[in-house]
Design a protein that fits this description.
306 residues; mainly alpha; MetI-like fold; 2 domains; 0% strand
């Protein structure tokens, strides 16, 4: 994990330096008339006159001390900026995960039980479309449909969940649906494949032969034994959804961490971009670790470290 994070810091640091322009050009503007002395002074102020390895070592040393740095454009600590926007991103991700799990598992079970029937074909085609449609296009179409054709559009001004829950959920429903569609499709396909494999097992046939109801066989026996691959995919999808919030938050103008990353890239605010991406990466790894811990609960045969 430590080596992964170290490699990520190098990758993010170097990729940002490959983008044309710096924070100095963004601050003075393209048409501004500024003396070379002033430009050199600004570069020294931000440490851009130093070699890249000196800049990297300074940033890495601050990270080792728990200091994520200060935003060049706002002058605020990066930690403060992240924490201010993190609730929006977490709420959006959790709503999208909930939607994806509910729809994906239900659709996958129905598709497996009704294999090669009309409902199975509908689920398979729907899953293929869900994986194929780009998130930004889907979000744009949802906005156009609900604002132009139905003449209904949620408020565009963000409202905190605890301040006004009803209005907050009204704002979040479309972004959550947009963000969770591809994950729901992926989970549905995984659930269908796992359920089909389990339903062919001898113990499932034995349970049915003993007279157990079809719903009990499917939900109590088949689904429980098919959950491990589903949980794995769901955990990965949650991490992917954290990255997907960048596009969704920009399309729906939500003040989350994803939109903060985009803004910092536009502004060439290196400390803010680097530390925010690293923060999201740590969250992604923590989610994967939590998924691994769930395995032991779902399957007692799994024991780590033995």
């Amino acid at each position: 994990m430590a080596l992964t994070l170290l490699g990520l810091t190098v990758l993010v640091f170097l990729m940002l330096r490959l983008i044309p322009g710096t924070v100095v050009e963004q601050m003075i503007g393209a048409d501004a008339i500024v003396s070379p002395e002033m430009v050199a002074q600004l570069r020294r102020f931000f440490g851009l006159d130093q070699p890249w390895w000196v800049q990297y070592s300074r940033w890495l040393g601050n990270l080792a001390q728990g200091d994520l740095g200060t935003s060049w454009r706002t002058g605020k600590p990066v930690v403060r900026l992240i924490l201010e926007r993190l609730p929006v991103t977490i709420e959006l991700t959790l709503l999208a995960v909930g939607f994806a799990l509910a729809l994906g598992i239900a659709a996958g079970i129905v598709s497996a039980v009704r294999r090669d029937r009309a409902v199975d074909n509908v689920v398979r085609v729907g899953a293929l479309l869900g994986l194929s449609v780009p998130v930004f296009w889907q979000g744009t179409m949802l906005i156009l449909f609900f604002s132009i054709y139905l003449r209904w559009m949620p408020p565009v001004v963000w409202v905190d969940l605890f301040a006004d829950p009803r209005r907050n959920l009204t704002i979040m429903v479309l972004p959550a649906l947009c963000l969770g569609t591809a994950s729901a499709a992926n989970i549905a396909r995984t659930t269908r494949a796992c359920m089909l494999d389990v339903l062919r097992s001898e113990y499932i046939r034995t349970a049915a032969a003993k007279g157990l109801a079809g719903r009990a066989v499917v939900m109590k026996h088949a689904l429980k034994n098919a959950l491990i691959p589903i949980v794995t995919v769901a955990g990965l999808q949650m991490g992917i959804l954290l990255g997907g919030t960048v596009v969704v938050e920009e399309v729906f103008t939500l003040p989350g961490v994803g939109r903060l990353v985009l803004w910092s890239i536009y502004q060439r605010d290196y400390p803010l971009t680097q530390s925010t991406i690293l923060f999201v990466a740590v969250l992604f790894m923590a989610i994967n670790l939590a998924v691994d811990m769930v395995y032991g609960y779902l399957d007692p045969r799994i024991r780590y470290g033995e």
